[in-house]
Design a protein that fits this description.
heterodimer, A: 537 residues, alpha+beta, 17 helices, 42% helix, disordered C terminus, B: mainly beta, Immunoglobulin-like, four-stranded antiparallel β-sheet, 9% helix, rod-shaped
Chain lengths: 537, 234
């Protein structure tokens, strides 16, 4: 569970959206009871069973809280709705606030019965839908809920905790409109319910309401070029004609979209269709769930493989990093093979953020290879020989100066080493001067020998300590540079030509000495030049 | 990214690493603690000794000592000669110049007196025995008359008195201490015996007249000897 910071410029941005007419007329108020039950639809067949299986496996799913000036929005995926629906979380939240709000045990247990959205959640259960609940801003919130999960669970039931004053009409939630890139998106289901205000010694129902809408997850999908859509909620209060515009942060939109990818992957395998031979191959993971996904992939069941892999990634404990990467690549491959470039792009964007030097095997689909090139961020994708790093480390910090991200560290090492050494020299020189004064002492003056000697020796000792510190920094920086470069080279190997069959799909390969295609940068010395030579072995 | 890939990695390079470590170690030398060779440093390693007489025997004697130092005493060095005498003030020794001390009070009982040179808190000391040796002794009876002119009746006891002085002519103080070192001989113990004579501050010898006749009392003390003839009558 995460909370997401408000976007203060959301309103200004919303006004600038081209072709987005600012609503002059608010949509109608949502009903208190569901006016329909959502059918699975063509893309939701089997969704109810799938989400039930997910819920049975454990708590997962993303919910986010977006704070605005007057309102706050809780965004929940179907999996999050299921995770937050447990009564125990509600009781935990209230019990956490029991002392702060002077509640009794009866009131704590009573809050388990507060659940105004049961009917709506049931009506929307069979269809993939993202819920967005809009609440009035809490005036004096008490953070006493025993954790964010409990707090979000309570919020999902309309329970707010703290001290409340009287609300003006401008602070009430009238109706809500959902827009994607400035255009109004249809809402699958909408409703309103009372807010339960858990305040000092009592549970207050003063008629304040909150509104929830259920929207199609496709509204969160990126466009064909991978751009995250601009999603806004226009929140109307009962009196003002103009809405408050609250924009959902891009990270949130992307996370919600990715939460539903495991389900969407299930639709990749058409019934009765022949398996698709995988173009690239990955090492068999040790994680059992990922191994099952890997086997499905090797058999050509792309949808099953991608869904299983991404479902596994929703749960803790996290598999090893390399297995996560391969699982995401496997899923991206599956989407690519089915022409679902938007989903593949979403996954590849995440992969390339972490592995900017990743290259795919020549056997990879051309579109994926192009994606990798397009998504690559500036990074140093070459390794410097360790001998060169060792030589460079003779100058403190130069071994760290291998790229822009380590420039600050390099500078810090250089400055700290040089400063420590120079200070040590200064101290030792001062010690020597003080010692000369000590030797020149003839009696009868002040300071006496004890003071003079202590001054000299203390300065020398401090100088020695600083010298040791400088040497330790120097040596440590050299070792760090070697180790970091070694690790960098190892990571480069891991993500080089990922997916080659001849490497048993290891997701990279160990380049032996003289391995084909290895890029080597080495010092070059000739009669007319000194520098670095770049060669391919 | 064709061809853009990692190169061979070998976490070796040990010679280079070793060279790096050695270079750093050599460059960053650690300096030894300073030597404490100043003569005025009480915790220093400089040596200072005083040489001179081990004892004096008369009031007015001068104790001359020589200060030897390593390192040599620098020009313009400031230090102080001092002596505190004995704790009961029966012996007093005062500095009287560069390396010289004057005995102004002493007695026949010798005391070990420190004479020293003080370098701030650092003090070099030599201990000297200071006292008086008897250089001159005169025995007599009564009010300064020779004993042979004052016969003593047999069976009576009588007193032989004395005057003593050191080499500088100063009276011996605490004569009982000197008498402890005295050797007393009566040439004819049948006529008189010096028993029992206890050391006393007056410097007197008590004798018993045993039988008529005459005999010699001989006293040898430190560097002086004297004798008197005693006559016993019936």
């Amino acid at each position: 569970m995460r909370s997401v910071a408000p976007t203060p410029y959301a309103f200004a941005l919303a006004l600038l959206v081209a072709g987005a007419p600012v609503a002059a007329q608010s949509p109608g108020r949502a009903p208190l009871t569901p006016d329909s039950t959502l059918a699975p639809g063509p893309t939701g067949e089997g969704f109810a069973a799938w989400r039930a299986a997910i819920a049975a496996r454990g708590r997962t799913g993303a919910s986010f809280l977006v704070d605005g000036d007057r309102y706050q929005i809780l965004v929940m995926t179907p999996m999050a709705i299921d995770a937050l629906a447990q009564d125990s979380l509600m009781v935990k939240a209230t019990r956490g606030c029991m002392r702060a709000l002077a509640l009794n045990e009866e009131q704590v247990l009573y809050t388990a019965q507060v659940d105004p959205w049961v009917a709506f959640d049931s009506a929307a259960y069979a269809r993939p839908a993202v819920a967005l609940a809009v609440y009035p801003k809490e005036q004096r919130r008490y953070d006493c809920h025993a954790g964010n999960l409990a707090r979000f669970a309570a919020m999902s039931r309309g329970a707010l905790y703290g001290a409340f004053g009287s609300e003006t009409p401008q602070e009430m939630v009238g109706s809500v409109e959902f827009r994607r890139d400035g255009l109004v998106e249809p809402v699958l289901l909408s409703g309103r319910a009372k807010v339960t205000k858990v305040t000092h010694t009592r549970l207050l129902d003063d008629g304040t309401e909150h509104t929830r809408i259920y929207v199609d997850p496709q509204a969160f999908s990126p466009d064909a070029e991978g751009r995250v859509p601009q999603l806004e909620l226009h929140v109307y209060n009962p009196v003002d004609p103009e809405p408050d515009v609250m924009r959902l942060p891009e990270r949130l939109v992307r996370a919600v979209w990715q939460q539903l990818l495991p389900w969407q992957a299930r639709g990749l395998d058409a019934a009765g269709a022949a398996p698709t031979p995988p173009p690239i191959h990955f090492a068999a993971p040790r994680d059992s769930a990922l191994l099952a996904a890997h086997e499905s992939y090797e058999r050509g069941n792309m949808g099953t493989a991608a869904s299983a892999a991404m479902t596994r990634l929703m749960f803790m404990p996290r598999p090893p990093q390399a297995e996560i990467r391969n699982a995401m690549l496997l899923s991206a491959t599956a989407f690519t093979l089915r022409g679902r470039d938007a989903e593949a792009l979403s996954l590849m964007t995440d992969i390339m953020e972490v592995y900017p030097c990743l290259t795919l095997a020549p056997e990879a689909p051309e579109s994926m290879r192009e994606l990798v090139v397009a998504l690559r961020k500036p990074a140093r994708c070459t390794a410097i020989p360790l001998r060169v790093i060792a030589l460079r480390s003779v100058i403190p910090g130069y071994g760290q100066a291998t790229g822009p991200l380590r420039r600050r560290l390099a500078l810090t090492v250089f400055i700290s080493t040089a400063a420590a050494y120079l200070t040590a020299e200064q101290l030792r020189a001062y010690g020597r001067r003080s010692y000369e004064s000590y030797l020149a002492y003839r009696g009868g003056t002040s300071p006496r020998t004890f003071t003079l000697y202590a001054r000299a020796q203390n300065a020398r000792t401090a100088g020695n300590v600083l010298t040791i510190a400088a040497a330790a920094t120097w040596i440590g920086a050299g070792v760090e540079a070697l180790w970091t470069e070694h690790q960098h080279a190892r990571r480069l190997e891991e993500v080089r030509e990922v997916g080659r069959r001849d490497t048993n799909g290891s997701g990279g390969r160990r380049a032996a000495a003289g391995a084909h295609g290895a890029l080597v940068i080495a010092p070059a010395l000739a009669a007319d030049r000194v520098g670095l030579s770049v060669s391919f072995r | 990214m064709t061809g853009a890939s990692s190169q061979r990695v070998r976490p070796g390079g040990r010679p280079l690493l070793l060279a790096l470590v050695l270079g750093v170690t050599v460059a960053c030398h650690i300096e030894e603690p300073f030597a404490r060779t100043n003569l005025w440093d009480e915790k220093g390693s400089a040596t200072k000794t005083l040489s001179g007489p081990d004892s004096t025997f008369s009031i007015g004697d001068r104790i001359r000592v020589t200060l030897v130092t390593d390192p040599p005493l620098p020009p313009g060095a400031q230090f102080e000669w001092m002596s505190i005498g004995s704790s009961d003030t029966a012996v007093q020794v005062f500095p009287s110049g560069d390396g010289e001390f004057l005995v102004t009070r002493s007695n026949a009982g010798f005391a070990l007196v420190p004479v020293s040179a003080k370098f701030d808190q650092s003090v070099v000391v030599k201990h000297v025995w200071v006292g008086q040796l008897v250089a001159s002794l005169d025995l007599f009876c009564g009010a300064g008359v020779p004993c042979e002119t004052s016969p003593v009746t047999a069976g009576a006891t009588f007193v032989v008195r004395s005057t003593m002085s050191d080499a500088n002519g100063n009276d011996i103080r605490r004569r009982n201490e000197a008498m402890k070192r005295a050797v007393t001989i009566v040439s004819d113990p049948a006529v008189a015996s010096a028993v029992p004579t206890l050391p006393n501050a007056a410097g007197n010898w008590t004798l018993r007249a045993n039988a008529p006749g005459s005999t010699w009392l001989v006293v040898r003390m430190d560097r002086a000897t004297d004798s008197v003839r005693v006559v016993v009558v019936p």
